[in-house]
Automatic annotation (TrEMBL):
This is Aminotransferase class I/II-fold pyridoxal phosphate-dependent enzyme. It comes from Inconstantimicrobium porci. Belongs to the Orn/Lys/Arg decarboxylase class-I family. Residues 1-342 form the Orn/Lys/Arg decarboxylases family 1 pyridoxal-P attachment site domain. GO terms for molecular function: carboxy-lyase activity; transaminase activity. Keywords: Aminotransferase, Decarboxylase, Lyase, Pyridoxal phosphate, Transferase. Residues 360-433 form the Orn/Lys/Arg decarboxylase C-terminal domain. Its cofactor is pyridoxal 5'-phosphate.
Amino acid sequence: MPGHKYGRAFKENSLCDNITKLMIKGDLTEVDGLDNLHDPSGVIKEALDDLKNLYKSKKSYFLVNGSTSGNLAMIFAAFSEGDKVLIERGCHRSIFNGIILRKLRPVYLDYNYDSVLGLPISNNSVDVISRIENEEDIKGIVLTYPNYYGICCDLKAISEKCKEKNILLIVDSAHGAHFGFSGVLPQNAVSLGGDIVVESAHKTLPSLTQTAYLHVMNENLIDNTDFYVSAFSSTSPSYMFMMSLEYSKDFLKSEVELKYKKLIHRIEKLKQEISSCSFLRIIDKEYINKSADFPIFDYDNTRIVINVDKGLSGHKLLKYLRENSVQCEMSDERNVVLIPTPFNIEEDYDKLIKALKKCSESDISDKLKEICYMNSYEKVIEPYEASCAEKILVNIEDCEGMTAGDNIVPYPPGIPLVVMGEKITRNHIETIKRLLSSGVDVLGVNEDKIKAVK
């Protein structure tokens, strides 16, 4: 990230000449003729109407504070204090922050994990629908589509059940802004029935970091969404950000079918070019389904996920690749994620191929036992109660059995290991230590100490 790849998207374009220079000149404020993002009636309204028509939503928004502001706005617009909400455990930290701020009562959907590949594989729609049918008094459900690895659940089937039960479906589609605009990509979450959907334009589209879209399909939520999108946005929105959001919109209206076909063809070629590396491979839907407990529904074939054999480390591979001039997006115990877009060039792939072919098993070996930390949680008090409670700093080694006073979040991907208000277990402690020793940033841990409820 971001999807413009060092500004290449702004240089090799047919949509607008000298877009980079225009962006710098466009660092302006709300003067006559430039409209106002918080009350659009002119050129910004025209752009937003065009975005709405493109995604076929009831209303769409430019977000200049990232998908984080969109996730907060969605939660506040859809739910009221004290509501019981079904949350996918693999949601981003901003979703959990919204839950805390809105004082919701979360119940969780366990995240599915493929132990053969060491890979989180999102949700089984059968399990999700069963929870919707059997969980009493839930006001809505929050899902991620796709997950960080490009894996997609059967969102349409889940949406149909939500509508049958009259509950809201909120979708964090941060990694799916490009979906639905090519036959070789999964469908967009908006078209699949999400009531509110947020998408990070900067992740996969040619837009500046911190830019995103939000789409509303449920007309009953528009007034609330208007208020909360504004409330969680800067009152001095960047016109450079908005210009890049409009640029991405126009990119999607251009001939993107061929661009994405070429991108996926290049990734397929890459798989063949590294086939001699017997201890690693680029995985896809077919490969995942060989070992998964249930077949994944869909997959983003523009995502590169490099999976390594057991006994090897995804974290060490990421470090190795960085040392060989290849910057990756993230890693976990067994996988490294890269996010190519149509704006990567052949040199980028050549560097990756060269580095992978040079890599040996000894470069990335790891003798420590692999840890799976998904679905290890026990709520003691509600997260919002923990946020207001008196807290103490405790050494990691001494916090077993205590109640977390902060979210503990490996970053990336930004999915909480422990949510505040949950019991800290020995498994959590060992996982935190393992992540830190692997060079992973863990938010909520400071100098080997964490906050616990007193």
